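Researcher:
Attend to token order:
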Amino acid sequence: MSFGAGACTSRRTRTRFAGSDGRARLSARTGTTARFRRPAPECLRGPCHRDSVDILLRGGRVIDPKTETDRITDLLIVAGRVAAVGDALTAPAEVEVVDATGLIVGPGFVDLHSHVHSIAGHRLQAMDGVTTALDLEAGLMPIAEALARAAADGRPLNYGFSASWSQARAYAHLDRVPVADFAASMDLLAKPDWQRSSSPVERRRWLGLLEDELGAGALGIGVLMGYAPRSDPDEYLDLARLAAAAHAPTFTHVRELIEADPRTPIDGSEELVRAAAETGAAMHHCHVNSTSLRHVDRVLALLDRSRAAGSRVTVEAYPYGAGSTAIGAFFLAPEKLAGLGIAPRSLVLVDTGERIADEARLREVRATDPGATCIVTFLDEADPFDRAHLHRALAYPDSIVASDAMPISWSAGDGRPVYEQRDWPLPAGGHTHPRTSGTFTKSQRLMVLESGTWSWLEAFRRCSFLPARVLDEVSSGMRGKGHLSVGADADIVVIDPTTVTDRASYADPTRPSRGVRELYVHGTPVVHAGEIVTGALPGRAVRGDA
């Protein structure tokens, strides 16, 4: 199958990874598409999960964004699915009845952009109303290993991954063996050799890897173009052609805007809409709030024109004026900060709390620890002008809420970070971005409760229904999510509208949100009476259709 100049051909490098720790030996030969070794079937079996519970949610305000239903009624869950929605439903003796009077019952939130790959992170997101947490902007590779790891450990929430463009390029350029670990991905962001334009051979190689990952269950292609913004724009078109042919979406952290650096080969948002128009691919614009900054009106107008012309472009935003990434990222070089409207003191190291004092210290940290996670303040939420930019990104028609949730770490005795913690409540001292804990409840607080910009129905459309629909074509497993039709997956959140709010701050980023009273994943309670059910690990893999 041909995808145009420089794209995949019928002869590719076949690569076998003999292990999963990044130290495996490689063997290569000329042959068919590159393939990662699939795990044995037993590797896909997770720990024993609680069975789903048959539950009748009685008298809640049931909101279904698919049918635009918003009324007081009952909802019955049987065998992990929505069995009935209606007035005065009869509850068999074995069904647990939950009084939902005064509460909102809706489909659980679908997060397209979550980098938390741990039980601790999933629990924080559950308290924020999330039932499905997917890493689609960065992705992980090999996809089979990523899915097997999550299944073996168990997850409270549903999970899935895109094929990782950055890791595929790192293998094609550097023979760097992909490791299905987000920390390894962060370390990669500061390594320049994978960021350059690819040779024709290298381009065919990474396109082949991505194609094979789509066949192995990836939910599209995650493109960290913002970390390789000097690469040839024609490569992005080839990637979009591959995605279009595979009926898979792309999820792009766009390269810098022309306003940030006039030397960019192409404006990042212009590149995305051009690829959508020329290839017909479904193109998702990640965190438009943090990549567009004070130019968001220009970018949103561009997306408007693209969508009006029939292109398949979707967009997401989160309600914070600060982002988080590796301090060695291309766009955080000292000479780049002025174009972003920030200074070194806008950067704070997550693990130590150090605020970068000046350019000299920034250069030092980038040289010694380029993978260190930092908080980057782009917009001042206390400034009405900046706050209005955030509001417009969220209010934009059909803008999807997505968190960009970051891993949670604790400092070990030897100074190294620890990423897994199974105790609940979480121990003090956890380091992350507050968006990990509070994106969805903060969006509801700002857009429903305080400004009245959204109705509750609209909030569920943007947090549940629209993100699930982004994946309908690539994954039949997503078609039962984001709505409450009979037969839908019983991924359901029950919210107290009088108390719902985010509580995490930059100083206390792991403080759970409040107001999520019940949360079910495939009918299994993960949150009950406002508290985490610590034994519940019902999350399942969401896979692309091979």
